[in-house]
């Protein structure tokens, strides 16, 4: 069994980087709070270093179903009308969703 | 007669004998809702007019077709509630979050459709930890739900409103999802029967996804019979959810009376070591004695990777959450991502971290391998025994606010529940009595697709104990 290495602390930069990747904007209070809380949780994860997983396959499907395919056909029952598709959006223009320009 | 305290079985019998109508059942639930909602906060949306219209339709149906209609529609006229994570056509669905506070789904989840086809009446959508993230109900953006047995305490989460609503008689059954604990913990804390079925037994189509390799769909009821009856309706292959398994669904209610003489019961020794409340431990030991009286043979069993289950769970689940919640961008529905609550933000960032290049192997892949070992522990155990028995929670329902500031402590309240989800096994919570007036629950865990056996064991135990008859004084 490996000895537990030193405590993991996520840096302020790491928290800001994660927030950016996840498209979350954080307040200064949140940055400080999450830095503390997430560090404690990630540190708890190092417990798994104690487990020998040599030659162990990762789980990919827990009931071991393989290649569940669906016929590539249009199912008219599942199709939403244009009105149904757009009705919950605050960001639309005529019959389209409106998004900010990306380029 | 207090109609809203009946079980589904009793209510259906009353409808058949014309002792009361579905209209009266629905009104009894709506009256109860009006009386207790200010205290409990179990519902986000109440479907008052819709429910009364549907009840009147059910009464007409019965008048026209007679008793035979219950064969085709086994829940005809029964008021139920749906967790707010399930899409309900033309009925607001918020996932407990303010991001999609005004979302009106254009379609029904498969389970909702099946329940409606079976004649059930939706009285409302229940409160929950936002997106299903939580064990207490306190992470709801709509305020916490309170435990009907003690208003200072949590009802368990994430299906917090579903637990409180069934226990207090606001409805006869409520749906829930169980990714790590979310049906069984509220069932345990609210004196209810709650099923976490085998992964893939019930379709998730139309249910807002949390962690897709874990999510299962269950429900909470007062009794084992009601629970088994509901699973007969909701379970089965669905072409809209590729993870559903093409296995026949037994008529679970037909096997309940079967004796459990000779049943091999395993007691996982790792669940009886650290952190368990002594009173809870005594309670589970007397429950095990009761099962022995009913013919069970008890063996000690080891699940050696138990101590790694929580770390494994909290790597894999947030990873999948960060991916599933990326679709909430405020374009097709809902508001901006800034409105995610603290718990969702924490889990999205954790998942983003564990999936990042450079960290993926150390965290995600490592955890996916440990998951294999946890599953093997259960498979080995089920070579020796038929079911495993354990407490559902190491502690009593805790006080509102008690664990709110420490997410890691909150996560650890699911320590006996999460390993089952890692292994994809089914597990049933049944009430095992009260400590200081607070409900405690026992888990019956079986191998994949053994729900029929779990219900048999639970039914015999319930017959001998009848804790469901103790309703909260609210």
From TrEMBL, chain A:
The keyword Ligase applies. It holds the Pfam family GatC. Its EC number is 6.3.5.-. Keywords: ATP-binding, Ligase, Nucleotide-binding, Protein biosynthesis, Transferase. The keyword Mitochondrion does not apply. GO terms for biological process: glutaminyl-tRNAGln biosynthesis via transamidation; regulation of translational fidelity; translation. It catalyses: L-aspartyl-tRNA(Asn) + L-glutamine + ATP + H2O = L-asparaginyl-tRNA(Asn) + L-glutamate + ADP + phosphate + 2 H(+); L-glutamyl-tRNA(Gln) + L-glutamine + ATP + H2O = L-glutaminyl-tRNA(Gln) + L-glutamate + ADP + phosphate + H(+). It is an enzyme of class 6 (ligase). Heterotrimer of A, B and C subunits. PANTHER family: GLUTAMYL-TRNA(GLN) AMIDOTRANSFERASE SUBUNIT C, MITOCHONDRIAL. Belongs to the GatC family. This is Aspartyl/glutamyl-tRNA(Asn/Gln) amidotransferase subunit C.
TrEMBL record, chain B:
The active site is at residues 83, 158, 182. It holds the Pfam family Amidase. One of its GO terms (biological process) is translation. It comes from the Bacteria. Residues 25-454 form the Amidase domain. It catalyses: L-glutamyl-tRNA(Gln) + L-glutamine + ATP + H2O = L-glutaminyl-tRNA(Gln) + L-glutamate + ADP + phosphate + H(+). The keyword ATP-binding applies. InterPro entries: Amidase, Amidase_CS, Amidase_dom, AS_sf, GatA. PROSITE patterns: AMIDASES (PS00571). One of its GO terms (cellular component) is glutamyl-tRNA(Gln) amidotransferase complex. Keywords: ATP-binding, Ligase, Nucleotide-binding, Protein biosynthesis, Transferase. The keyword Protein biosynthesis applies. Coiled coil: none annotated. One of its GO terms (molecular function) is glutaminyl-tRNA synthase (glutamine-hydrolyzing) activity. Belongs to the amidase family. GatA subfamily. PANTHER family: GLUTAMYL-TRNA(GLN) AMIDOTRANSFERASE SUBUNIT A, MITOCHONDRIAL, TRANSAMIDASE. Allows the formation of correctly charged Gln-tRNA(Gln) through the transamidation of misacylated Glu-tRNA(Gln) in organisms which lack glutaminyl-tRNA synthetase. The reaction takes place in the presence of glutamine and ATP through an activated gamma-phospho-Glu-tRNA(Gln). HAMAP family: GatA. Heterotrimer of A, B and C subunits. This is Glutamyl-tRNA(Gln) amidotransferase subunit A. It comes from Candidatus Roizmanbacteria bacterium CG_4_8_14_3_um_filter_36_10.
